[in-house]
Design a protein that fits this description.
Number of strands: 17
CATH architecture of the largest domain: Alpha-Beta Barrel
Strand content: 15-25%
CATH topology of the largest domain: TIM Barrel
Distance between the termini: 60 Å
Helix content: 25-40%
Radius of gyration: 21 Å
Number of domains: 2
Largest sheet: 9 strands, mixed
Shape: globular
CATH superfamily of the largest domain: Metal-dependent hydrolases
C-alpha cells in the first residue's frame, strides 16, 4: 500500500490504553486516518508514501485537546489583570465585549487564537462565545478541529441584543454548522447558573438533547457563585442543575472548583464531564479544582486554557506543567498528578470530555491523524530519559515543530501553513489600538 504520509525517526508516545511508547516508530497515514503504527524502517517494503516527515529524533504524540476556551478573547489579552473574577467580568470584560465585539473582531480574534494554538501543538479545541458563526468561519479556515458553541446568557449580548432570542440563535448556529465540515462539531454554551434562568437552562438542555449536542456551562467557578446559588436555591450549583435535569453524559462542566463530595457523586452518576482550567483559576484566585477526587470517582476530566483574557495564553504545555505542580504542592504529595496522568488529561481524556474520544486524543490505528512532533534538540530538553516527563515538565509550545490535523500538515518546521500569522497579528494590533482608546 502507498500511504499519503509517513512520520518516522522519532519516539512515539501513543497515549493508547497501555500508554505505549515506541522508541523508533513509524506512523503511516492514509486518507487522514492513522493506518498503522510500526517499528520498521521507512525504507522497508510496505511503507511507501507520497510524503515522508522526519521527526529527527523528536517526540511524536497526539495533538493536544483544549477543552475550554473563548477564542475571540485573544483581543482582550492583558486588558485587565490582577482582579477578582466578578470585578474582572463586570467592570472590564462585559463592557469591552458590549463595545468592541462584532462579526469582524470575533473573526480576527479567532484566527489569532487558532494560529497560537496550532503553533503550540493544540489540534482540537472546545469553544463557547458570541457571534459563533464568525468563530466557525475562522476555525474552518485554519483547519483545526473544534467543538464550537454559541453562547447563551439572559442579558443583551454581542450579536443577540434581545436575550429572548438566545436559545433560538444557538439552535440556528448548531443547525447551520451541523454538516459543514467533519472538523467542526456544533454545541450550545450556557454561560452559568447565575446568568441563565432555570427556563433558559431547561430550554438549552432540551434543544441540545434533541440534536445530541454537547452542552457546556461554567459551574461552581468561585466561592461567591457557590454562596449565591445556595442562597437563591438552597442547593449547590451542581444540585441546582441536577434538579433541572440538566446533567447527563452530554454535559461539560467548566471549572467545577467548588464541589462537595456529594456534588462529585452527582456528576459521576449523571456521567457528565469536567474541564479544568488551572492557570486561569490560579490567576483569578478562584480556587483549585479537586482533580484527584474527580479521577478517584471515575469522572472524565480534560484540561483547558480558558480565554487569553484570564490566562493569558493558549499553551497547553504550560497548562499541563501548572496542573501537575499545583496539585502536588496543594496536597503536599509529589506523587499526585504524575506525568502520564496529566498527559492523558490533555489528550485522550480531554477528547472524551468533549465527545471526540473515539476519533482523536491518542495515536492508534483507525483514529484521525491529529499528530504533533516536538523538536527535542534543545538545551532544555537534553538529555532525554523519559519522554512523558519532558512533555509535562520541560517542553513548551514553541518546541512544536510539525502539526497535522486529519492528516493535513498545518505547521511545518514551526511555520504556519494554513494561515498568514503576520497578517492576522497586524489586524489584531489595529483592533487593539481601537480597544485601548
Amino acid at each position: 500500500m502507498k500511504f499519503d504520509t509517513i512520520i518516522h525517526n522519532g519516539i512515539i508516545v501513543t497515549v493508547n490504553p497501555d500508554f505505549e511508547i515506541i522508541d523508533d516508530g513509524i506512523i503511516c497515514v492514509k486518507d487522514g486516518i492513522i493506518d498503522r503504527i510500526i517499528t520498521k524502517k521507512p525504507d522497508q517494503s510496505g511503507t511507501e508514501s507520497k510524503e515522508v516527515i522526519d521527526a529527527k529524533g523528536g517526540i511524536i504524540m497526539p495533538g493536544l485537546i483544549n477543552t475550554h476556551t473563548h477564542l475571540p478573547m485573544t483581543l482582550f489579552r492583558g486588558l485587565a489583570d490582577d482582579l477578582p473574577l466578578l470585578v474582572w467580568l463586570n467592570r472590564h470584560i462585559f463592557p469591552a465585549e458590549a463595545t468592541h465585539i462584532n462579526s469582524e473582531t470575533v473573526f480576527y480574534g479567532s484566527l489569532l487564537a487558532c494560529a497560537e494554538m496550532l503553533l503550540s501543538g493544540t489540534t482540537t479545541c472546545c469553544d463557547g462565545y458570541f457571534h459563533e458563526h464568525d468563530v466557525a468561519r475562522a476555525v474552518h479556515r485554519s483547519g483545526i478541529r473544534a467543538v464550537l458553541a454559541q453562547g447563551v446568557i439572559d442579558f443583551p449580548a454581542p450579536g443577540v441584543p434581545d436575550p429572548v432570542k438566545n436559545i433560538e440563535t444557538a439552535v440556528q448556529f448548531a443547525e447551520q454548522w451541523q454538516a459543514v465540515s467533519p472538523l467542526i462539531t456544533p454545541s450550545i454554551f450556557c454561560h452559568s447558573p447565575y446568568t441563565c434562568s432555570d427556563k433558559t437552562l431547561m430550554a438549552a438542555k432540551n434543544e441540545s438533547s434533541k440534536r445530541n449536542l454537547l452542552l457546556q456551562i461554567h459551574v461552581a467557578e468561585t466561592k461567591t457563585e457557590l454562596e449565591q446559588i445556595q442562597t437563591g436555591h438552597n442547593k449547590t450549583p451542581v444540585e441546582y442543575l441536577d434538579s433541572l435535569d440538566f446533567l447527563d453524559e452530554r454535559t461539560l462542566l467548566a471549572h467545577a472548583i467548588w464541589l462537595y463530595d456529594e456534588d462529585i457523586d452527582i456528576v459521576q452518576n449523571r456521567e457528565s464531564t469536567i474541564s479544568v482550567t488551572t492557570e486561569s483559576e490560579m490567576k483569578l484566585a478562584s480556587g483549585i479544582a479537586p482533580i484527584s477526587k474527580f479521577l478517584k470517582a471515575g469522572l472524565t476530566v480534560g484540561l483547558g486554557t480558558d480565554s487569553t483574557a484570564s490566562n493569558n495564553n493558549l499553551d497547553m504545555f504550560q497548562e499541563m506543567d501548572m496542573t501537575a505542580k499545583l496539585h502536588k504542592v496543594n496536597q503536599l504529595d509529589p506523587t499526585v498528578m504524575d506525568a502520564k496522568t496529566v498527559i492523558k488529561l490533555a489528550t485522550i481524556e480531554g477528547a472524551k470530555a468533549i465527545g471526540l474520544g473515539s476519533i482523536t486524543g491518542s495515536l492508534e490505528a483507525g483514529k484521525q491523524a491529529d499528530i504533533i512532533i516536538l523538536d527535542t534538540n534543545a538545551p532544555h530538553l537534553t538529555p532525554l530519559y523519559h519522554p512523558e516527563s519532558h512533555i509535562v515538565y520541560a517542553a513548551q509550545g514553541p518546541d512544536v515543530k510539525d502539526v497535522l490535523v486529519a492528516g493535513e500538515v498545518l505547521v511545518r518546521d514551526r511555520k504556519l501553513l494554513s494561515l498568514d500569522a503576520e497578517d492576522i497579528m497586524a489586524k489584531a494590533n489595529e483592533i487593539g489600538k481601537i480597544i485601548l482608546k
